[in-house]
């Protein structure tokens, strides 16, 4: 529980909560895209997909019981 509070109170957590467009701009720049990308309709979905491909995150993983 304490680590969740620390993450939320971090600068990135506060930024994501109160000013999501600035966080989107930072994430886009970190991935090598233009800072204007988050302001285009549907662009954040594409950015999420490219990051999942880059870091090989499988969203359809079966969780074993």
Automatic annotation (TrEMBL):
Q: Which UniProt keywords apply?
A: Signal
Query: Which residues does UniProt assign to the signal peptide?
Result: 1-24
Q: What is this protein called?
A: (Atlantic silverside) hypothetical protein
């Amino acid at each position: 529980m304490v680590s969740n509070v620390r993450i939320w109170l971090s600068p990135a957590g506060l930024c994501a909560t109160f000013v999501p467009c600035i966080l989107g701009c930072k994430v886009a720049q970190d991935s090598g895209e233009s800072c204007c990308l988050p302001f285009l309709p549907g662009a954040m979905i594409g950015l999420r997909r490219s990051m999942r491909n880059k870091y090989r995150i499988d969203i359809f993983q079966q969780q074993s019981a």
